[in-house]
Amino acid sequence: MSVSLRQLEAFVAVAAEAHFGRAATRIHVTQPVISQEIKRLERTLGATLFDRSTRSVALTTAGRELLPYAERTLAAVRELTVHAEKLSSTPHGEVRIAASPSVLDRFLADLVRRAERELPDITLTDVPVPTGEVEQALVAGHADLGLGRFLTAPDGYVVATIGREPVFALLSDTHRLARRATLNLAELADPDEEADDDRGGYDDRGGSGKTGHDRSDSGRAAYDRVSASRTGHDRSPAAGDRDGTSGAGYDRGGAGRVRRDRGGYSEGSGLPLLLWPRERHAAYFDHLVGICRERGLDPLLLAGPPQLVGARSYLISDGRAFTLVPESTAQRPVPGTRAIPLSRPATVPLEILMPRDPSPPARLVANLAMTKD
Where is the composition biased (Gly residues) (predicted)? Predict the structure, then answer.
């Protein structure tokens, strides 16, 4: 048995109008067409639906009993169509977001919370990536959007700035400067000041202060286990930089001072700056080192993992290094450390990476990310 929607429409229209001509007008067909559809439906159902006369058309007993079924069927089809149109006009599905460590815990968490409220038909999935690998995640097809800092746009992608975050210095909470309301980075430049301060620092008498640096062989070994090379570049012109200049704002290749004197520490470098290896994310690395240098600190650099506030955070809490973090990271408690605003403020960008022509769900999520809650 095969009943078409056109036949049911003709049946309902003739029943409502009690006239074939008016029924044809109602559903925008000719009278011969509606007459043919009614005859086909009657043959299929094996029942006569209308009593026909030259003056009137009336439902038969079978017609009256079958009419509600036809009406409900057409109503269900209309509901189906409306719902399908709603689905096609309302983006839905999954949007995968690659996020670097400093973005993952706060901004992405807030974005997921907002999306649950404002975009309930879209599911956000976080794709954690190490510092410097947001772009690779999108290009490899592992994510639809990317969140990070100092992002670059591969072919077919665009980068937009969401905002900027203040930079904080993260120190041991027992460091002599840890109780300052703001920190002048230049004050970290002289390790001898810490040696003379009874609140912690170097102890040149063979031991260590309350926190400070351990100048014993075991103290130096701890540094060497993290970075035997002290991160990277020496002070002479590097290969590809024979004129002694640097395109990244570094002094003759400068990833910081790396001379090994005074027991493995750079002369006058003070408390080392803990960062990831420069090759992992050069632009971000250069910016943080530049913040130090612009404020009178030419830091010795200590290589750590991509997520600084993680497995190597003990180097900070032990007073053997400091690092620079965005405000969102500074607001996450790290045992044994204190985050201090800089006396001369600095910022880092928060950016989003997306395809030039994102999917409708990804576009909605990107727009949400770029609007304030």
Answer: 246-256
Residue labelled with tokens 């973005």:
103
Beta carbons within 8 Å of 269's beta carbon, 6+ residues apart: 189, 191, 256, 257, 298, 299, 300
Structure tokens at 16: 């409502």
121: Cβ contacts below 8 Å, ≥ 6 apart: 90, 91, 92, 93
Beta bridge partners of 338: 171
Q: How far apart are CA 216 and CA 204, in angstroms?
A: 9
Cβ atoms 329, 102 nearer than 8 A? yes
The one-letter code for the residue type at 358 is P
Q: What is the pLDDT of residues 124-171, one digit of tens each?
A: 999 999 989 999 999 999 999 999 999 999 999 999 999 999 999 999
Residue 204 is given by DSSP the state T
Q: What is the dihedral of CA 281, 282, 284, 285, to 10 degrees?
A: 110
The tokens describing 33, both together, are 């067409």
Walk me through the domains of the chain, giving residue ranges and CATH numbers. Answer: 5-89 (1.10.10.10), 93-156+364-368 (3.40.190.10), 165-349 (3.40.190.10)
Residues 331, 343: Cα–Cα separation, whole Å: 18
The answer to whether 185 and 229 are in contact (CB under 8 A) is no
Q: Which of 288, 270, 280, 274 is nearest to 337 (CA)?
A: 274
Reduced to 3 states (helix: H, G, I; strand: E, B; else coil), residue 215 is coil
CA dist 339 and 331 (Å) reads 8
* DSSP alpha helix (H) spans, the chain: 5-17, 20-26, 31-45, 61-89, 101-103, 109-118, 134-139, 191-195, 217-226, 282-294, 314-317, 327-330, 360-369
| pLDDT tens digit sequence for 247-301 | 333 333 333 443 333 333 333 358 999 998 888 899 999 999 999 999 999 999 9
CA–CA dist 303, 289 (Å, integer): 13
Quick one: CA dihedral 299, 304, 308, 309, positive or negative?
Answer: negative
As a whole number of Å, the CA-based R_g of the chain is: 36
